[in-house]
Amino acid sequence: MLGCQRCMGGLARSASARRPHSASAAVTALRHSQHPIAASPLQGHRLSHTSSSPSLRAGGARTAPAAASPSASASASSPPSPSPSSSPASSPSAEPYPYPHVPVMLREVLSAFAPLHVTSYLDCTLGAGGHASEMVAAHPELLTVYGIDVDPTAHTLAEPRIRAAAAGREGFGLRLLRGNYRDLRPLLGTVSSPPPQPTAILMDLGVSSMQIDTADRGFSFMREGPLDMRMDPTAPLSAEEVLNTWSEAELGRILRDYGEEKLWRVVARRLVQAREVEPIRTTTQLVKAVGHTQIGGKLGKGPKGVHPATRTFQALRIAVNDELRRLEQALPDAIAALAPGGRLAVISFHSLEDRLVKHAFARAAGRPTPEDEHRTYGADKFAFLDELEASRVAVLVGNQKPVLPSEEETARNPRARSAKLRVLQKLGGSGDGVEKGSGGRMEKGKRKLRRAEEGKEKVDGEGVGAGEGEVAVEVEAAGRGGKGKGGRGRRG
After folding, report:
1. What SS3 state is found at 40?
2. CA dist., res. 242 & res. 251, Å (int)
3. Rounded to whole angstroms, how far apart are CA atoms 400 and 463?
4. Angstrom distance (rounded) from CA 97 to CA 3
5. Strands 120-123 and 200-204: what pairing?
6. Can you list the domains of the chain with their CATH numbers?
7. What is the pLDDT of residue 405?
8. Under a CB-based contact definition with an 8 Å cutoff, are residues 44 and 203 in contact?
């Protein structure tokens, strides 16, 4: 009986602890919605695909949106703390960042390009010029900057910022190219023939904060505005047209594939039912039509405070701007455009984007992608591995895992929380030894595998002594860190 009383008392205390207590509960919820992400050894502005909420992701040279509390708003406007190798322009200061748009993962981007002698730089997603201006400040040898953006407003904001960073630099040139990064090859072709080969290229994916914070663009579910969502204001397809003309099956497909919405059938049905009453023309109408989802509890919010309309807005924006197809086309073109020994850095904000970047980098580095994994087994595996090696044009910088923003940055700028940085270096040029390390490990592994297979074939087909065959296989085991029989074989 005593044990039961203790259990009941514990349950009562637990239930009491779960009850919200006005302001303190709100503060606790805000803290839990901002989980820190571990910093990367590699140690910048676009918004994540899934968020227009202030508690969600950040954008590369973008401004942080109005937060849920004054303290959160103040922290979001602060710049990321750079490493000692960062440029003076990115040095820590008690003053707020001098521009309204804060580059995401600025310190990590500058570190990725720090070993290079950067004479020309291409920013495929120029935005307000946050990353570009900091690159100019960090590399005195940088004389040519190319900036691509589909939004004409971005060029207006970026040009004075970049020129101010290059003030007094003799021979400095800035070329602003209007278009989408998918067209970077023909856009560079308009500069010269043959096209220039930049030493450093940056792609900061997603939508910018200046677009999110402009209600008339329709990107944010926190602001009343028309359902536009076009990054290029002249593009023919808008979110309003998608919502009111596409079939329920088509809406469900983009919610599932682009928004990764678990309740995609439910949400698609709600959207169709809402538009049958009246056309969905504004962001608030769309939020109301989505309603509260069942997953995530009472308010339809998951453990990280994800708004129930977040994935719907993400899916519509990706569909309207054809973002994934453009990225898939642009990545190999960006790698091809690099100068020998140059580096490509890509910041993604969503698993769909990061998967495309990861696979494109793997193919360029001569590594199998998941869809090719089955070809690494069977009788033709060595032919396939040789084919991969022959197609290798680059190496991965660092390991295969992406670089994540520091805890300090995510605390100051919640929009940076889901950012991931991957870096690739093209073969050729002096480099900094990256090629030998990464490519050498893979080639060494293939040689070990080939020797092991040849050892087995000798045992089975050529009738050599069993001891020789065992030694050949055991060498492979020892190379993988094996102990015991392999070690004894070498000593014997």
Report:
1. coil
2. 8
3. 42
4. 58
5. parallel
6. 70-210+324-432 (3.40.50.150), 223-321 (1.10.150.170), 436-491 (no CATH)
7. 93
8. no
Give the E-state strand segments of 226-367 in sequence order.
Answer: 343-348
Do 328 and 205 touch, CB atoms closer than 8 A?
A: no
Residue bearing tokens 């940055």: 409
Q: Is 111 helix (H, G, I), strand (E, B) or coil?
A: helix
Asked which of 373-387, 397-411, 471-485 is least confident by mean pLDDT, the reply is 471-485
Q: Rounded distance, CA 395 to CA 363, Å?
A: 10
Kindly tell me if the per-residue pLDDT of 335 is higher than 80: yes
Residue 200 per-residue DSSP state:
E
pLDDT band at residue 431, thresholds of 50, 70 and 90?
A: very low
- In the sheet that holds 394-396, the strands lie side by side as 173-178, 144-149, 120-123, 200-204, 343-348, 420-426, 394-396
Tracing tokens 């504004």 back to the chain, one arrives at: 282
Amino acid at 172: F
* Signed CA dihedral, 251, 253, 254, 255: sign only: positive
**Tokens in use for 130?**
């946050």
Over residues 225-259, the pLDDT tens digits come to 888 888 888 888 999 999 999 999 999 999 999 99
Take residue 201 and report the two structure tokens written for it.
């290229």
Segment (H or E) for 123:
strand 120-123
Name the nearest CA neighbour of 44 among 426, 317, 420. 420
In angstroms, what CA-CA distances link 179 with 184, 188, 407?
A: 8, 11, 34
Collapsed DSSP state (helix, strand, coil) of residue 265: helix
Position 379 scores a pLDDT of 82
More confident position, 235 or 42: 235
Q: What is the pLDDT of residues 48-107, one digit of tens each?
A: 333 333 333 333 344 333 333 333 333 333 333 333 333 333 333 334 445 556 789 999
How far is CA 400 from each of CA 111, 271, 364, rounded to the nearest angstrom?
A: 17, 40, 13
Instruction: Return all residues near 244 (Cβ < 8 A) that are at least 6 apart.
Output: 275, 279, 280
pTM of the model: 0.66
Give yes or no for a contact between 49 and 206, defined as CB atoms under 8 angstroms apart. Answer: yes
Burial class (CB in 10 A: 0-12, 13-18, 19+), 311: buried
Structure tokens at 291: 């309603």
Q: What are phi and psi of 344, to 5 degrees?
A: -115, 125
Q: Is the peptide bond before 194 cis (omega within 30 degrees of 0)?
A: yes
Residues 6+ apart with CB under 8 A from 412: 75, 76, 77, 78, 79, 80
Going along 172-263, which residue ranges are E strands? 173-178, 200-204
Q: What is residue 173's DSSP assignment?
A: E
Bigger pLDDT: 18 vs 216: 216
| pLDDT value at 492 more than 70 | no
- Compute CA 8 distance to the chain's CA centroid, rounded to the nearest angstrom: 48
On whether the CB atoms of residues 317 and 219 are closer than 8 A, the answer is: yes
